[in-house]
Amino acid sequence: MKSSDLFSRAQTLMPGGVSSPVRAIKPYPFYVERAAGSHLATVDGTDLIDCCLGYGPLILGHAHPAIREAIERQLEKGWLYGTPSPLEIDLAEVITGDHPGIDMVRFVSSGSEATMAAIRLARGYTGKQDIIKVEGGFHGAHDAVLVKAGSGATTLGVPDSAGVLADLVAHTRQVPYNDPEALETLLANDDVAAFILEPIMGNIGPVLPDDGYLADVREITAAHDVLLILDEVITGYRVGIGGAEVLYGVKPDLATFGKIIGGGLPIGAFGGRRDIMELVAPAGPVYQAGTFSGNPASLAAGSATLRHLHEHPEIYRRLDDATRAIGEVAVDAGKGSFVRIGSLFKHFFRDSAPQNYREVKECDTEAFSRFWRGMLDAGVFLPPSQFETNFLSAAHTESDIRQITDAYGSCLFA
Ligand SMILES: *Cc1c(COP(=O)(O)O)cnc(C)c1O
User: Fold this and answer.
1) What is the second-level CATH architecture of the domain 65-310?
2) What residues does each domain of the chain span?
3) Quick one: fold of 31-63+312-413?
4) In b/e form, how buried is each residue of 75-113, taking b as 16+ CB within 10 angstroms?
5) What angle do CA 269, 272, 275 make, to 5 degrees?
6) Would the CB of 133 count as within 6 Å of ligand 1?
7) What is the C-alpha separation between 413 and 397, in angstroms, rounded?
8) C-alpha angle with apex 336: 333 to 339, nearest 5 degrees?
9) Residue 33 parent element (H or E)
10) Domains 31-63+312-413 and 65-310 share a fold
């Protein structure tokens, strides 16, 4: 059955025909039959280079042999125990070893769960009620953070969700990204438990931190006894081993993880300073629990992924070179602005690189849509939104990069 027919069926069965909003590509999404390496094969017989990569988790590409083998080996031993398994100790050791700010972790099943629990923990630890997030920052789809959220919510133009209680959201304050003065002003007047932010804004961009911004954020939050939660769900193991914490040298009180640490299977984790983490149940009074938390298949896939990255740190260098090459073509086109860091990249249809959510929203989304469609016709699948980051994986070959670069050039010059 073709994608158009499948989508007609799906629309009567699932809201909008999809399982997550940004997938509802117009007029209908393509359905994938299989994926391997850097490529997707659609049910319509089209082959595409994938620069979406499941929205970030697949840094080694699809169906990487080492990860598949780790999952298969685990499947033979069962995939849900309801008791601890040695796998979780191994992955916890790797994550705490790679992040100076992370003494302990708790595994959960998604990034959303991780940020939800980290916020609860921050409130439990400080006894304070409010949290601050960054405008356009995305931390998953739970109530406390669905205010001016990035990702699908920005794409659809409904940053505030129906069904979220105004009373609850009243405890979520906002500041613009790259604006330490706004944070300072808010903290001078408010009773704030935590500031949560994506160190690099990945769900409207990437939008990069100005020099010194994250250091300022660390200093200001510490001065006001406010916990700093770095949401590293995208940046963790994406911008390098140790994520943004190590890249920028900013030590959080708490951090959240997901995506890459599960090797493409569902996972999340939150962690941080020991004295804070020891408040999590059953060690302490902040409750958190999950049937699938620390599930063996995700842990096996995640461990194998992180092991591979540790054994092949040159991957990061190669991916950085690749996005630089794409950027050179984009800059030659003299249209819009190209932003990249490591394997994250994006073309913004705006004259200069955006510094925050307000500037991102000034982009010409119609120009983006034409560009996106052109890239797809040229065999390159980019996330279908001006407000989602493009990714590369270790599986992208030199010839893939050339095809992406050529397509970029011809679509931008068109
Ligand atoms: C994807 C993402 C989340 C949510 O993770 P899920 O696994 O989709 O729940 C949270 N924070 C950031 C920064 C993300 O990119």
Assistant:
1) 3-Layer(aba) Sandwich (3.40)
2) 31-63+312-413, 65-310
3) Aspartate Aminotransferase, domain 1 (3.90.1150)
4) eeeeeeeeeebebbebbbebbbebbebbebbbbbbbbbb
5) 130
6) no
7) 24
8) 100
9) strand 32-36
10) no
**pLDDT tens figures, 38-66:** 999 999 999 999 999 999 999 999 999 99
Tell me the CA–centroid distance for residue 12 and ligand 1, in Å. Answer: 27
Question: Are 60 and 19 within 8 A, CB to CB?
Answer: no
Q: Which atom of ligand 1 is nearest to the CA of 235?
A: 13
Pocket mutation for ligand 1, best pick of 200, 230, 233 (most atoms within 8 Å of C-beta): 233
Residue 402 to residues 104, 241, 347, Cα–Cα distance (Å): 42, 27, 17
Atom of ligand 1 nearest to the CA of 203: 15
DSSP state of 363: S
Read off the pLDDT of residues 375-390 as tens digits, 9 standing for 90 and up. Answer: 999 999 999 999 999 9
Q: Is 388 in the pocket of ligand 1 (CB under 6 A)?
A: no
- DSSP run (H or E) holding 230: strand 227-231
